[in-house]
Design goal:
Strand order of the largest sheet: 2-3-9-11-10-6-7-4-8
Shape: globular
CATH class: Alpha Beta
CATH superfamily: Regulatory factor, effector binding domain
CATH topology: Multidrug-efflux Transporter 1 Regulator Bmrr, Chain A
Distance between the termini: 42 Å
Order of helices and strands: EEEEHEEHHEEEHEE
CATH architecture: Alpha-Beta Barrel
């Protein structure tokens, strides 16, 4: 069983849930297209955790794998890890995406092995409050857009405010039948004020 990234459930809604993710470390790489990030980018990251690092240390695979727009374009343990997109064409015009592996609990910038591939980078992520919608199916931009729109509508109906870039989280390998895949879209949320008022 692949280790899954830990989180604390905060609240469940009909179409989505709110989670709190602890601080964690990502190994990531930028690619030039949505599909290329999920395919070729995955191979480079897998090489890193398989020992392509300065101490040839093997690191356990976690889920999800996470995919979003490159941080350079934005001012942004079992899944693999997108700025708001209006249409499918917007994604096609974007010049860079990034894909990231969530490293297992306990890894930090201080103790994680440095990648030997200069295109692979390590990035810490602080504690975050996140809205998550789950869906099955393929990893197409169309499927991503459809469920992102559903999540944004649901957030608006509940009065929650999203921040930053939506992320696609993939929990399953490419060979798993598309109808059985576990996918999620994550959106960071604005933390409620201490008084409970906006």
């Amino acid at each position: 069983m692949t280790e899954q990234q830990p989180y604390q459930m905060v609240r469940e809604y009909d179409q989505f849930e709110v989670r709190c993710y602890p601080e964690h470390l990502l190994a990531e790489i930028n690619r030039e297209s949505f599909e290329d990030a999920g395919n070729r980018g995955f191979r480079y990251l897998f090489a890193y955790i398989s020992g392509e690092n300065q101490v040839t240390q093997k690191i356990s695979m976690t889920a999800p794998v996470v995919q979003d727009l490159s941080s350079e374009l934005l001012e942004m343990t079992a899944p693999v890890l997108q700025q708001e997109f209006a249409t499918h064409d917007d994604i096609q015009r974007t010049s860079e995406f990034r894909i990231a592996f969530v490293l297992p609990e306990g890894f930090t910038l201080q103790n994680a092995p440095s990648p030997t591939n200069p295109n692979v980078h390590l990035r810490p992520v602080p504690v975050s409050l996140v809205a998550v919608i789950r869906f099955s199916g393929g990893w197409s931009t169309r499927n991503f857009q459809q469920h992102l729109q559903m999540l944004r509508i649901a957030l608006k109906e509940t009065g929650l405010i999203s921040l930053g870039t939506p992320r696609l989280a993939r929990y399953d390998p490419p060979f798993k039948p598309w109808s059985m895949r576990h996918n999620e879209i994550l959106l960071d949320l604005e933390e409620p004020s201490p008084s409970g008022k906006d």
